[in-house]
Amino acid sequence: MSLEQITQEFIDGMKTTTWLEYVAVFFGIASVLFSRMENILVYPTGIINTVLYTWFCFSWWNLYAEGSLNFYYTVMSIYGWYVWTRKKEGKVIPITWNNKKDWLISVSFFIISWIALYYILKNHTNSTVPWGDSFASAAAYTGMWQMARKKVENWIWWIITNLVSIPLYFYKGAVFTSVQYVVFLVLAVMGLITWIKKIKPAHA
Question: TM segments (predicted)?
């Protein structure tokens, strides 16, 4: 596809973007900003975004893995909201690094999720992008779980998710959502840097 064709598809896609998608993108970006600041508002804003995208993915774009992912986001947001407000010894849960066990569990969880989602999409749906849809969703499943536990590495999983989601949504004609993932990618890199800076003094 030439640059001219990509540009034209971008313009056409922006013209057909609905106001509801703009609302969803607004709350999605707000949620990532709050996450970077370690602010509890990451969850209520995120829930609005994920409920809307669950509907979009199933009803508009036939992105079934992404639709199930956004439903999972909603459930995990409720769980994360609880974990982030829970106090241990009078203090809220701190940001921490993965240990070897955490890495083993998270990578295994990602691989199993990717294989399972790919198999379901390939054999039981009319998905035209089973590889990309399953990969992005599996990485995001892992990132959301890590974020709920305040692990620094959650940002690495979000970076991977965003890199795959940008072309995935563009291909499906969800151009403004694709732009959202470009913003998410930048914010994920910034979030990783911010959380690393936050955790250093705690370990000093």
Answer: 16-34, 41-61, 67-84, 104-121, 178-196
Q: Are the beta carbons of 190 and 36 closer than 8 angstroms?
A: yes
What is this structure's pTM?
0.77
Q: In angstroms, rounded to a whole number, what is the distance separating the alpha carbons of residues 166 and 184?
A: 10
Q: DSSP strand E in the chain: where?
A: 87-88, 91-92
Q: Which of 124, 123, 143, 121 is nearest to 134 (CA)?
A: 121
**Is the CB of residue 2 less than 8 Å from the CB of residue 20?**
no
In the chain, domain spans: 3-203
Q: What band does 163 get if pLDDT is binned at 50, 70 and 90?
A: very high
Tokens of 189: 């890199």
First-last CA distance in the chain = 51
Question: Average pLDDT of 75-88?
Answer: 82
Tally Cβ neighbours within 10 Å of residue 110. Answer: 20
Integer Cα distance of 27 and 88 in angstroms: 30
